[in-house]
Amino acid sequence: MGRRGDWGTRSHSPIRPFTILERRRRVRILFVGDIVGKPGRQAAARLLPGLTEEFSPDFVIANGENAAGGMGITKDTASQIFGAGVDAVTLGNHVWAKKEVYPYLNEEPRLVRPANYPAGVPGRGSAVFRTAGGDSIGVICLCGRVFMDCLENPFTIADALIETLAPESDVILVDFHAEATSEKTAFGWYVDGRVGAVIGTHTHVQTADERILPGGTAYITDVGMTGPADSVIGVKKEIILSRFLTLMPSKFEVADGDGFLSAVVLDLDSSTGKATGIERVRRTMSPSGGE
Ligand code: FE2
């Protein structure tokens, strides 16, 4: 744990100290994977300060669509995530799970839901944020459609959003919230060179395929979850085992116990919008709170 991740197949520099000129152009984003329930929120709160000290990100994004009881997000759980040091929260297919959040989706500009729902639903599917250093970060959230609800086509919606955001964004990041590795991989290739990063979320298991695609887009199929360690992708393992053994329906409950945090650190060049580094991160809470 804590070992620097492997680097992609393209030749690029690892995370390292930057020269003054590079520092002016570099935007470093820490993207934290799906925060699941209370163990996930606690892991984010306890582990993010150390990661911030270690990597000095300019901006922190987290996927929070499982933050409230494993399904959806509320104003209170979103506030806890922002309080942990997260600057923007992306969502996913469980965005509508908690009805009380609907007005908050309109009120809170730091929440970004999937953009490919029909027009007129609450919230925003993309947003542009500004770092303390003055760089602008366009954030797009999209849901995949394979083995998921049939939303509008994320590929063509991405075309329109990239065109809209590009003039006002130094870098653009897409949270592609999807089930199928094939759809995620295809999406990465589709937008390669047009966005700085495509970060896969939703499947909760970190994949080891992070790389920079030939056009300059940092890509990972799934960043992994931030949630309870002894679980089946966040849910109590006894419940899931019972379902596999009996095929009978049962209510999902978030597992108890210590959580772990999954993330990627991205370095992007604000003068080109392209990535120069991507590194997988995974930190586990021990009873003493360390790794
Ligand atoms: Fe999801």
In which range does the helix fraction lie?
25-40%
Figure out the total of helices.
7
Largest sheet: 7 strands, mixed
Determine Rg (CA atoms, Å). 18 Å
CATH structural class: Alpha Beta
- The CATH topology is given as Purple Acid Phosphatase, chain A, domain 2
Strand content: 15-25%
Structural domain tally: 1
How many beta-strand runs? 13
Alpha-beta content class: alpha/beta
**Ligands bound to this protein structure:** fe (ii) ion
Explain what this protein looks like in three dimensions.
The chain is an alpha/beta fold and 291 residues long. The chain has one domain (20-284): Metallo-dependent phosphatases (Purple Acid Phosphatase, chain A, domain 2, 4-Layer Sandwich). Helices cover 25% and strands 24% of the residues. It has helices at 20-25, 37-55, 75-83, 102-107, 154-165, 181-191, 237-246; strands at residues 26-32, 59-63, 88-90, 111-112, 126-130, 136-143, 171-177, 197-201, 211-212, 218-220, 227-228, 259-269, 274-284. Strands 1, 2, 3, 4, 11, 12 and 13 form a seven-stranded mixed sheet that branches. The termini are close together. The structure holds fe (ii) ion. Residues 65, 92-94, 177, 202 line the site of fe (ii) ion.
